[in-house]
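Homework help board

Subject: predicted structure for assignment chain

Our instructor gave us this sequence and asked us to write out the predicted structure in token form, then describe one feature. I got the tokens but I'm not sure how to describe them. Can anyone check?
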Amino acid sequence: MRVFLEVPVTISREEARKAAERELADPVYHQDDPSLVERALTWVFEKISELLSRIGGVGDTRYLGVAALVAVIVITLVALRL
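My token output:
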């Protein structure tokens, strides 16, 4: 039977932080991250949703409002192309 009386590795808090940063900088941890475009679109839709929820009032109408806004934008873009 083994008994460990003390931890065999002594590392300072700063060294541990740097080692963790190096490890977490590995691309394998970020391969499923959303792309820049996906993050931008998510941010835009969240801001639109927040705006509509402030304006909205009663009920959960923000998704309906976002859908209506997207429809208006799409229709406008299609109309401008014709």
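Reply (TA_rk): Your tokens look well-formed. For the description, you could write something like this. Residues 33-81 form one domain. That's the kind of observation they're looking for.
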